[in-house]
Amino acid sequence: MTATVPDFGAIAKSLAFETKAFINGEFVSAASGKTFETINPATGKVITAIAEGDKEDANRAIRAARNAFESGAWSGMAPRDRKAALLRLAALVEKHQAELAVLESLDTGKPVLDAYNADIPDAIATLQWHAEAIDKIYDTISPTSSDIVSMVVREPIGVVGAVIPWNFPLAITAMKIGPVLAGGNSIVIKPAEQTPLTALKLARLAAEAGIPEGVINVVPGFGETAGQAIGRHADVDCLSFTGSTEVGGYFLKYAAESNLKRVILELGGKSPAIVMDDVDDLDPIVEQIAMGILFSQGENCSAGSRLLVHEAMKDRLLEAVIAHFKTWKVGDPFAADTKMGALIEEKHLDRVLGYIDAGRREGASVVLGGNQVLKETGGYFVEPTIFDNVRNDMKIAQEEIFGPVLSTITFKDVDEAVKIANDTKYGLAASLYTNDLHIAHKVSRKIRAGTVSVNCFSEGDQAVPFGGFKQSGFGGREKSLLAHDQYSQVKTIWMQLR
Ligand code: NAD
User: Fold this and answer.
1) Ligand 1, residues 247, 263, 405: which to mutate, most atoms within 8 A of Cβ?
2) What is the mean pLDDT of residues 461-475?
3) pTM assigned to the model
4) CA atoms of 461 and 478, how far apart (whole Å)
5) Distance, CA 125 to ligand 1 centroid (Å)?
6) Domain 5-267+472-493 - what CATH class?
7) Per the count of CB atoms within 10 A, which of 41, 168, 209, 212 is most buried?
8) Residue 3 — very low, low, confident or very high, per pLDDT cuts 50/70/90?
9) Distance from Cα 220 to the centre of ligand 1, integer Å
10) At 120, is the pLDDT very low, low, confident or very high (cuts 50, 70, 90)?
11) CA gap 57, 407 in Å, rounded
12) Residue 198: CB partners within 8 Å, gap ≥ 6?
């Protein structure tokens, strides 16, 4: 958090948008000449028209990425120089932090301060972390007899396709670009159709940072056209996807029906926040529970959407949670006191409201919120919503709502808490609140999720792996050095000495 807050409104007025695809170092119109509109979710109004890339544009971008890879301009560059270029990109993102935050807020509907204080700094830290790793990774020599030298070397996988969701557009793009470029690969990015603006701006900054042409390409467009074309392309070596479990599954099919490209999927979740009966100070817990489900309007893959609370604690905790949720002001993403902005689009608003109806119909009780608000703005706002008396087999407890809706479920003992926590097809994250060291250790081992945070809601930082168990993920881990494994091949060189 910087000391002085920029004048985001003034920045918004003077913005120049990048609206074309970025292929082989140039901004170009779609081959078809078509465009699509990107909408501001807080007003329902058009921000600008964007080049609508489809199969032909994806093909061009993949060709450019392949040529760049084969040329060695990036893949063959000395690690130290690649590190310097990626650090220059991180520095440029930092220089444009306020502008990128404004673009992200306009495109996603999230509070500009969240974008400024969380999303963009996260993208910067991610690029820096992976850049710093570039010249610190060593290959190995394996134990052999004295007449053999066996080297195990890591090589870039080649051309990576990255298909991105709309909830953290720049942060997730950086999560792909960091390790992909660190490994010497080239990348073709397809941002979500709802949120293309920051990826295109990043492409501009990458060129300024001196990253060679063709190494980073951005093809804005729709999933079924541009996304599918990248997924099915025979010259893409690896496809890294973040988004819904349903669409993630399509990429496995695309790979099976094309070239068996490596597929990495970061998918949805239905993460529990478990509160044991030994906790005393509720204030910090309640704050974390709110962050878990209300931050980013609940449009967060690791959102703590199920509140699992010991039956002896329920009334006291729920009262405190309700009181705290009331302090989360929903409103104009550019207002300084706004904590929750708009949902991404009208279709998603209807989906979230549909889940709230389903919860009521199944017999759960709304104890806070439950409605669309600020209709007069033309935007897609929903107030913080809490359900009590939820059973874990209800739709609202099993399906990812991706909105600010918390389902409260009680348990009687630790074993039941673990059973309910694991009783979902997802396994992305979980939070556990307890003062008991034994419970903290034992329960965090028993929960089937990629990240378990204890006495906080957190995904950790750049240095730890992130990914899902069960239907929350497939094929690898983002962040940390494990992310580098995803975008490299391991080769054995076995030499007979004479
Ligand atoms: P989505 O799956 O609808 O879309 C994601 C991307 O896939 C978009 O770029 C979209 O254009 C593309 N796409 C859609 N249909 C396609 C198709 N048929 N072929 C190829 N590409 C296609 O997801 P979303 O609505 O953008 O994002 C929300 C989902 O993302 C949630 O389920 C959320 O949990 C998940 N998510 C997961 C993580 C994680 O790291 N695990 C992070 C953020 C979001």
Assistant:
1) 247
2) 98
3) 0.97
4) 11
5) 23
6) alpha beta
7) 41
8) low
9) 14
10) very high
11) 43
12) 100, 103, 104, 107, 169, 170, 173, 191
